[in-house]
Amino acid sequence: xxxxxxxxxxxxxxxxxxxxxxxxxxxxxxxxxxxxxxxxxxxxxxxxxxxxxxxxxxxxxxxxxxxxxxxxxxxxxxxxxxxxxxxxxxxxxxxxxxxxxxxxxxxxxxxxxxxxxxxxxxxxxxxxxxxxxxxxxxxxxxxxxxxxxxxxxxxxxxxxxxxxxxxxxxxxxxxxxxxxxxxxxxxxxxxxxxxxxxxxxxxxxxxxxxxxxxxxxxxxxxxxxxxxxxxxxxxxxxxxxxxxxxxxxxxxxxxxxxxxxxxxxxxxxxxxxxxxxxxxxxxxxxxxxxxxxxxxxxxxxxxxxxxxxxxxxxxxxxxxxxxxxxxxxxxxxxxxxxxxxxxx
Length: 344
Hints:
- Helices cover about 40% and strands about 20% of the residues.
- The protein has 2 domains: about 10-210, inorganic pyrophosphatase (n-terminal core), CATH 3.90.1640.10; about 220-344, Diaminopimelate Epimerase, Chain A, domain 1 (Roll), CATH 3.10.310.
- Strand 8, helix 10 and strand 9 (about 275-280) form a beta-alpha-beta unit.
- It has helices at about 10-20, 35-50, 80-90, 110-115, 145-155, 165-175, 190-200, 205-210, 215-230, 245-250, 300-305, 325-335, 340-344, and strands at about 25-30, 55-60, 75, 95-100, 120-125, 135-140, 230-235, 240-245, 275-280, 285-295, 310, 315-320.
């Protein structure tokens, strides 16, 4: 039996919302990852099995390696379909906010969501959620929002309405947000949940291949280039960073998702504690930052202090408004600021 992480009051309230709604919009964060798309499509499958009309809206495009999921082609991309997005949000009587803790994480989608009179539910596993929803189910101790969505469905007795497609979506999100269950996944409950998803008929080996073994040759050449030419290591500080400009990305025919997971690779170096990735946006004057760490070094704290970001203790992100050279200078200052901690 799973540990009870959803309170009876939360279960009663969200079941009422799910029972009474007719038109649902699910929104998730900018630059959606596997947990964002998996939790959104997984909840969509569940609610549609209950007879609800459900639309998923994301701020911008998501990686190709997630597009195998059922109904992924029906996800509404806000930046490309603004009129449709506004119309769907205006018609909704329930808005489910998944995998983000503040409205700023959904960019311009926040404007119609904030104005909407629909009931709002937040289901998320990030720290310190803003108080913008009628019901907030926040569990930072969960491995992923997909795990939390599963727990909600299980708690309200909805497992019969979780079909194979939904089970695949939730497993995919759990898998990507834990690096294939290699971090933030040491709770026995996680493997009990996987067992339940296997009983729904998922093939976890095939899902793994779809998530991690479907990249282009350009993606692998980009990874090789980063590791051989761009990686800057501080051996005495057990830290490293790499910075990639939009021109370099263009050289390797960059596609959304091609740098997914690359920030984790330097952590395979013996004794490494910190890895930082800097990627210049291909269109806007912004640099996207990913921070990963091991053990008791807080990636979240560093991201908050230097990169306008946040996240989990060992996996965080943020951004720098400016160009790649400016971001590199800030990155160097960040590593230097933590030099004494990193040396230890």
